[in-house]
Amino acid sequence: MPEDSTEQINFEQINKKAISQPLVSHIYTADPSAHVFNGKIYIYPSHDIDAGIPFNDNGDHFGMEDYHVFSMENINAKTIDNGVALHVDDVAWAEKQMWAPDAACKNGKFYLYFPAKRANGIFQIGVAVSDSPIGPFLPEPEAIKGSYSIDPAVFEDTDGKHYIYFGGIWGGQLQKYRNNKFDANHEEPLADEPALGPIVALLRDDMLEFAEEPREIKILDEKGKVLVAGDNDRRFFEASWVHKYNDKYYFSYSTGDTHFICYAIGDNPYGPFTYQGRILNPVVGWTSHHSICKVEDEWYLFYHDSSLSKGITHLRSMKVTKIDYLEDGSIITIDPYGV
Ligand code: FUB
After folding, report:
1. Contact 116, 95 (CB under 8 A)
2. Which of 188, 231, 333, 335 has the smallest number of CB atoms closer than 10 Å to its CB?
3. Beta bridge partners of 71
4. How far apart are alpha carbons 240 and 289 in whole angstroms?
């Protein structure tokens, strides 16, 4: 990932034009995964810190160590920080880089899914369990068997099944895998070859393991062809999220180096999904990562930007704004700083 952009930007102007303000400003937060559990909003973000690690394309400067869970009584209420819910020191298999997490609820138990690097530098995904949505969460002793890469997102379908989506290229290491197998020699496909897709697996009933071999998702263009790796404005990079609207499955994601949050629609949780357009235009900072959550009768986009830190890419702040759909189910593109 490139250097942060602190030069020549008038952040006072940007902050005035911004369509929303940080939900909290006492710590830096990013990658907000929002859910309504038992009628209350809970947000599971990354907790950004300055770990003093130099910038590089692998994102090593994202040196996060723990997770805090936030709650809101309603969408206009104050965002409450419920403190540390899980620390990397308590995760036996993980060494560092607690990146974007997500959470799920089943039968009164809460599950926190999180990526982290093992001592060998390889990302895997872990799960930690609690009786409360705000934790503390007790991590499983090992990572989820067969898991890899980053950015887990768990979708509960209307039939009660839970699916986990994950993957991210570059620092997220997805380019090192084909058919769920690691090979250090693998790289991203060539520009005219099919792009790497995000990965999905049904979760086992106990929510602690995959119930099946993970499968690669296809994101198609308007002609039904898989998006190619050189289509940087539309191809999947990281930050998977799935929500259901009018019985259709919406798969949304970040395009990484072109900084869009885009979406594609499909008829089932495994896809294929057909590319539709952009949900969010680029924010201040390199990364963009979001979640989409229905609160009462409205839909909201939780996202982040680096405006509070004046453009420091790894010091981000979570925000929320409303999503509007057109009659045909398409989402109106949001410009984070007005038009
Ligand atoms: O927060 C660290 C990484 O940055 C996340 O895992 C990516 O999605 C990007 O937001």
Report:
1. yes
2. 335
3. 42, 80
4. 8
Which residue in the block uniquely carries the two structure tokens 């990302």?
A: 123
In a domain, 339, yes or no: no
Domain hosting residue 310, numbered range:
11-332
Q: Where are the alpha helices (DSSP H) in the chain?
A: 11-17
Does 6 reside within a domain? no
What's the pTM value of the predicted model, to 2 decimals? 0.97
Number of domains into which the chain is organized: 1
| Atom number of ligand 1 nearest to Cα 46 | 1
**Residue 235 C-alpha to ligand 1 middle, in angstroms?**
17
- Cα(327) to ligand 1 centroid in Å equals 32
Q: Is 5 contained in some domain?
A: no
| Atom 4 of ligand 1: nearest residue by CA position | 287
- Which ligand 1 atom sits nearest the alpha carbon of residue 289? 10
Tens of pLDDT, residue by residue over 29-61, are 999 999 999 999 999 999 999 999 998 888 999
The answer to whether the complex's ipTM is over 0.85 is yes
- CA of 168 from ligand 1 middle (Å) equals 9
Contact present, 68 and 83 (Cβ < 8 Å): yes
Ligand 1 site, residue 150, Cβ cutoff 6 A: yes
Decide if 171 is inside a domain.
yes
Active site residue 31: yes
3-state SS class at 72:
strand
CATH of the domain at 173: 2.115.10.20
